[in-house]
Structure formats: C-alpha cells, structure tokens
Amino acid sequence: MAGLPTPNWLTEIHQDAGSAFSLQTVKLLAEVQSPFQLVQVFETTDWGNFMIIDGCTMVSTRDNFLYHEMMTHPALFGHANPQHVAIIGGGDCGTLREVLRHPDIKSVTQIDIDEQVTIMARQYFPELCESNDDPRATLLFDDGIQWMKDVAPESLDIIIVDSTDPIGPGEGLFNRAFYQSCLAALKPGGVLVQQSESPLLHVDLLCQMRQAMSDAGFGALQTLQFPQPIYPSGWWSCTHAVKGTEFAEPRWQDAQNRPFDSLYYSEQTHQGAMALPPYLLKAFAAE
Ligand code: SAM
C-alpha cells in the first residue's frame, strides 16, 4: 500500500492552502518549549535533521542551502560595498554563515529572540554554526524589533530579516513601523532583505509587505524567487528594498569570481531569481 501515511510520517498541514507537506522521520531528537515557542528537531530518513518551530517547518539538513544562499548572496553582490550587516532572526545560523563567506564583510550582528533555537542548531545542525565564532560575528538574543529601534542611525549596509512567519514573535517584523526603523538604521544605498513567503500561496501578504516597505520610505523593491521544497508550495521568495531611488547594478563580475563555493547561488541563478512571472508582476503593478 504505497503512499499512505504511517505513524513515522511527520505532516505540516497548510490549512489555508488545502495542502500538506510530509517527511518520513526516524525519531524525535529534541523538543523544548522556550519562553517564546516550541522548538523540535527530528531525524528523518532522507532529509537529515529537521527543525520545526510551533509546528512550522524551519530548516532541513538537505535543502537549507537553497534558502540561506538566496537570502544572502544576491543582496551582498547587489550592494556596491557591503561591510556591516544585521540579521534579525536567523537563529539556526545558516544565513550568518553565508554572509561571513564574503571576505570584505567587517561585522555581522545577529539578533534572534530565542537562544534555544541556536542552542539546538549548534547540536543538530553544527555545519550551519561553523562561523558562529568568527571574530566578525556578534550573536545577541533579544527582540529584533526593539534592537532595530535602538541601533545607531545609518550604521548598517544590509539588514536581513530571516524570521519565522508573521505570527507569534515574528509578527511585528512585517509592518511599516519596523521597516521605518530599518530605513533609519541603513546607510544611503543600504538594502533590507526579508523572507517574503510563497509567491504562489501568499501573494496578498507579499503585496502587503511591499506596500508597507514603500510606505516606510524605501525607494525601490525587488522580489526574488527560488525553490524551497520544505516550505509551503515548495517555492519561496525574499524581497529587497533599497534606501535610495534605485538599486545599484549587481556586482556580476564579483559574483562570478566569488571566493567561496556555493551549491545553488551563481550569477545565473541570481539573474533567474529576479525574473518574475507575469501574474506576480501584474499583482505588484497594482500596488
Ligand atoms: N528560514 C526560516 C523560515 O523562513 O521559516 C526562518 C528560520 S529562523 C530559525 C527564524 C527565527 O526568527 C527563529 O529562530 C525565531 O526565534 C526568530 N524570531 C522570530 N521573531 C523574532 C523577533 N521579534 N526578533 C528576533 N528574532 C525573532
């Protein structure tokens, strides 16, 4: 009887989309209710370890490179001279590792509200945490919304919001007030990057985010799309917003000559990620 779920199948139901995603598990490795959220890590048969927060998929060993590379390298090669970066959320540390692959980066401050996520990432996703002790990295465990209000104006080149979905502690990371704090924290020409959910299932949310970024004063927006099998619909996006009137031309030559190996990112996949289907362009044109 192939195809029928068994007790070893872990299923995330996407109620609003009438769909679900399942992975075959071997066992539950750890489960901790932190003051903020329920964090679980499972061993799976084919996807390595798998982290879930409050029932929502976060990271798998097998496919996280897609998300982490595309949350970082297009923005870093899209900025003329990025040196100072903040990551809001990102507690699994995969985004931090990718940012630190860029030798010209001078500082990265990561602010995740929940230290428990990083404690469990260190144990079950050690490869994602291999740059945590880089002298350029500072890991803080605090509310990213408040941190962004307090940080020195015009002190950052890139802000990457690698957050949970807009529910629970992540909710306030998706609104105009937060984006205004980000705008104030960025230097001229600085870029905000935020994971912006599924370009198939969450078009309304994507449009609301883009509208809130524009309302906050960002001058131009660019949504990029890429595959991410473990997230709802298997297709994901991030949105870039620039402090200025237009984006700089990406440093394509530097992207081509990047001094590190990447599994998904290349100048070609970067260009491909910027190509959006007509229905999305139409939705964004109506903003
Ligand atoms: N890649 C994932 C995704 O798209 O679903 C996100 C991964 S990362 C583990 C998300 C992190 O955001 C979590 O560790 C959570 O603690 C953090 N987070 C949620 N709300 C936050 C807030 N207000 N300030 C800082 N971090 C926050």
Compile the SSE list and pairings.
Layout (H helix, E strand, L loop, with lengths): L8 E6 L4 E15 L4 E7 L4 E5 L2 E5 L3 H14 L6 E6 L4 H6 L7 E6 L2 H10 L12 E5 L2 H7 L5 E7 L13 H10 E10 L7 H14 L3 E8 L7 E8 L9 H5 L10 H8 L3 H8 L2
Helix pairs in contact: 5-6
InterPro entries: PABS (IPR030374), PABS_CS (IPR030373), SAM-dependent_MTases_sf (IPR029063), Spermi_synthase (IPR001045), Spermidine_synt_N (IPR035246), Spermidine_synt_N_sf (IPR037163)
Catalytic activity: S-adenosyl 3-(methylsulfanyl)propylamine + putrescine = S-methyl-5'-thioadenosine + spermidine + H(+)
Function: Catalyzes the irreversible transfer of a propylamine group from the amino donor S-adenosylmethioninamine (decarboxy-AdoMet) to putrescine (1,4-diaminobutane) to yield spermidine.
How would you describe this structure to a colleague?
- The protein is globular and about 55 Å long.
- The chain folds into two domains: 9-60, Roll (Spermidine Synthase, Chain: A, domain 2), CATH 2.30.140; 64-251 and 263-285, Vaccinia Virus protein VP39 (Rossmann fold, 3-Layer(aba) Sandwich), CATH 3.40.50.150.
- The chain has helices at residues 64-77, 94-99, 115-124, 144-150, 176-185, 203-216, 252-256, 267-274, 278-285, and strands at residues 9-14, 19-33, 38-44, 49-53, 56-60, 84-89, 107-112, 137-141, 156-162, 186-195, 220-227, 235-242.
- Strands 8-7-6-9-10-12-11 form a seven-stranded mixed β-sheet, sandwiched between helices. Strands 1-2-3-4-5 form a five-stranded antiparallel β-sheet.
- The longest helix is centred in the first third of the chain and has 14 residues, at 64-77.
- It has nine helices and twelve strands.
- With 287 residues, it is α/β, with parallel strands linked by helices.
- Bound molecules: S-adenosylmethionine.
- S-adenosylmethionine (SAM) binds next to strand 6, strand 7 and helix 4.
